[in-house]
Structure prediction request, 348 residues.
Amino acid sequence: MIEWNSWVGTLLAVGIALVANVIVAVVVRIIVSRSDEQSRWLRALVVRLHPRIQLLVALIAFWNAAALTAPAQYEWWDALSHVFLIATVLAGAWLLSGLTSFGIERLMGRYSTEGESLPEVRRMRTQLQVIRRLVNVLIAVIAIGVVLFSFPEVRAVGTSVLASAGIVSIIAGLAAQTTLGNLIAGIQLAFSDSVRVGDVVVVEGEWGTIGEITLSYVVVNVWDERRLILPCTYFASQPYENWTRQNPKIMGTVYMDVDWRVPIKAVRERFQELLASTELWDGRAGSVLVTGSQGGFVTIRFLVSAKDSGDQWSLMCLVREEMVTWLQEVHPEALPATRVVMPEAKSA
Prediction:
């Protein structure tokens, strides 16, 4: 008969725990491998959480195996059991964090990246990203709190800590007001809908797209592949341009200084032909106006519209290039020129 209180019994119990862990893992894999296409999310969940589940199950199994056998009889068992408790709490928090992140990512998957141009899609994706980070932070704080309060010394000073909470909160608030301000500003950005992931913005004179919103900073993907990182408080206290808050449609203007002899009617006709020949123009606005006539030049404004800022920029460049080329080839007299009037020489 096996003596479970001996070290032999301990080794046997640990072996049984290992075998049981392996059997559970194999059974889960078999079930997942035979699941149909509609259960792909289950396969993804198992792949995502498999190492976390195995770690938690192994810790609990080893803890129970040691508690029911020889180690429980020694004086050092209390310390070892405490180590098992801490490891189990942290492993459980890791598992819970992975589970909640997977669930939130599944919700984010409903808002396809193909619809990033829709404000509602960007708003939901931004809020879900911030919620995921908040949940993970909350899980980490609770896990650390449980670990700390598992020490009798910490529980003993709990009353005095609560009694001095007012003073400590004031000191902590003064010391970490910037960090807390960024945290609050990050939450405000996510739920106030003022800026979302995927929005086109102009910040600090830089044109770019919001790439990431965290609880402390915002990453702006600048057009030349640089990354502008700003604290969340910047977007809560400083003015900035958001070109896609309501919809991505946008208008643009191209200005040209030309000679007084420019044929305005011909310019309008050529401009309309150009707009009709390109898919960059969305048909909402397209006009030519003379907006200035000073300094020896006539200023012409070409107004265009496009479905988003990318097409707007390309369309403005196209209009500028084609109209300059057309004026050079067809109406060179309309190119800017400086006139100098030479006074006639007086006869002797």
Q: What stands out?
A: DSSP finds eleven helices and eight strands in the chain. The two ends are 142 Å apart (CA to CA). The beta strands are 200-203, 206-213, 217-222, 227-231, 241-242, 250-258, 286-292, 298-306.
